[in-house]
Design a protein that fits this description.
The protein is α/β, with parallel strands linked by helices. The protein has helices at 7-20, 57-68, and strands at residues 2-6, 26-32, 37-44, 73-82, 101-108, 111-119, 128-135. Helix content is 19%, strand content 40%. The radius of gyration is 13 Å and the shape is globular. It binds zinc ion.
Amino acid sequence: MMIEVTRVLLQDILRQGRARYPAGACGVLLGVPGDPAVVEASRPGRPASEACAGPSAEDIEAAGREGATRGLAVIGTWHTHPDVPAEPSPGDPAGVETGRVTLIVSVRKGQAAEWACWTAETGLSGLQPVIVRLTGG
Ligand SMILES: [Zn+2]
């Protein structure tokens, strides 16, 4: 699976992650489904109360309703891992619906260290890596 994200949007997500550190940050990715899925917007989720938690089901639903008015669908979510690698945590697979992605941003000492994108695929356990193509200036 592959997604396209503009550099501007990725930078905005990294900025939110730094701003919330050492707490976690999260959001919902909206865009046009497909292969690649094209991410066009991020809607902030309620700040995660604990590290390594994505937006709540209510946040995802609300983002989906908002996106629908602009012709956008929920592509997935993003969340930060404060001082933890951008690898899926044991609890992450449960938060990712099949066919959707989760972008994980590792924030260390207040700086965005690395990021990686993951998806849940039918018939496979755990999360599989997603190729992210950065677009725009
Ligand atoms: Zn996580």
